[in-house]
Amino acid sequence: VEERPVSGAGEAEWLSTGAGGYCDKRLIVTEGSGALLLSLDGTGPRIEQIAGPMAYHSNRERVTALAQLANATTQPDGATLIDGAMGLPRLDNAEREAWSWAGETISPHRVLGEGMGCASALQLVLAAKLASDDQCSSVVSMPGTNTAAYACVIQP
């Protein structure tokens, strides 16, 4: 069985972490890491419909990129959306609008905070866990906080 590790980590860097408060006092910035071990063979969860990266350099371009990602991703029946919403309308509205077709939504950043470099890895770990334990498909929206956004579907 051929296996490939995928990981994401946030750097322990006080300047970026502290600067989050200047954006919005309610923004929780965190550090951490996440990892998945992917297999080319086997019966584990599958990553499908990888969309992105969609590059952007302004909020206007980000709105367009997120809409393109949502349009490029087909939601499987009964799928859960795992998004990057943080509970701050100014930061969340573009993603909410783009993924308005989604059913049940889980927003891990509301609990874990904005993990920057590790945020998407943690979303993928959650989607893989749902696929393994609950046999639930997930659409993962990784809107990015700085110039690039992605999306994919995780199938059991």
Rg from Cα = 15 Å
Report the strand count: 7
Mean pLDDT: 86
**Secondary structure: helix percent:** 25-40%
Structural class: alpha/beta
Shape: globular
How much of the sequence is in beta strands? 25-35%
Helix-strand pattern: EHEEHEHEHHEE
Strand order within the widest beta sheet: 3-7-6-4-5
Low-confidence stretches: none
Distance separating the two termini: 18 Å
Largest sheet: 5 strands, mixed
Total number of helices: 5
Write the layout of secondary structure elements.
Blueprint: E1 3-9, H1 14-23, E2 33-39, E3 46-55, H2 59-72, E4 80-82, H3 89-98, E5 105-106, H4 109-112, H5 119-134, E6 138-142, E7 148-155
Parallel strand pairs: 4-5, 4-6
Antiparallel strand pairs: 1-2, 3-7, 6-7
Summary of the model, kept short:
By secondary structure, the protein is α/β, with parallel strands linked by helices. Helix content is 35%, strand content 27%. Helix 3 (89-98) links the parallel strand 4 and strand 5 (105-106).
Any key phrases for this structure?
156 residues; alpha/beta; two-stranded antiparallel ribbon; 5 helices
What do these coordinates show?
The protein has 156 residues and is an alpha/beta fold. It is 35% helix and 27% strand. It has helices spanning 14-23, 59-72, 89-98, 109-112, 119-134, and strands at residues 3-9, 33-39, 46-55, 80-82, 105-106, 138-142, 148-155. The strands form two sheets. A five-stranded mixed sheet has the order 3-7-6-4-5, with helices on both faces. A two-stranded antiparallel ribbon has the order 1-2. A hairpin with a 5-residue loop joins strand 6 and strand 7 (148-155). Helix 2 (59-72) packs parallel to helix 3 (89-98). The longest helix has 16 residues, at 119-134. 34% of the residues are buried. The model has no long low-confidence stretch (mean pLDDT 86).
